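>> received
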Amino acid sequence: MKKHLITSLTLALFALICGGLLALINMFTSPVIKAHENEKIENSLSVVYTPYNSNDYTKEDFNREGVVLGYFIINKTTNDKEAVIYIIESQGYASKIRMMIGVNKENRITGYTVISEAETKGDITSHDFNMINKNNLDDFDSLAGSTYSSKAVKKNFSLALSYAKVDLGGTSND
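>> returned
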């Protein structure tokens, strides 16, 4: 009985020390990871909307299918919404495909980038889906051999165009 008690207490102490060390490490690494994520998003914003200026946007939490976060690009002179940039995701074959997609007030895609994915086939991060300056999916160029990934990317574009039409003062595409 005494041996079991000593073993249990030793394991509990070991777990407590390990948990404390993990919390300590997290305290130091969490801000660095968050800063890296913010830098990646900031760099992506300028890719998806060329006239982007870090002082000209407001961050929005959209509660919609697929939308993780959104940014309104605001004209500081007129206070009008010039564009909206979404971080949006859909399920591919092996993972969620998270993209940043910019749409201007003419409801045309200004740019896009794949932020994260873990798909097994094809290189969707560098594939040109032929969507720049488009306002519909007629010319969408799927990635050969990556049917599920292409469907997820196409869904991301479709959602972005539909939401942007509403968010920038139009009506829904539905």
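>> The mean pLDDT is 84.
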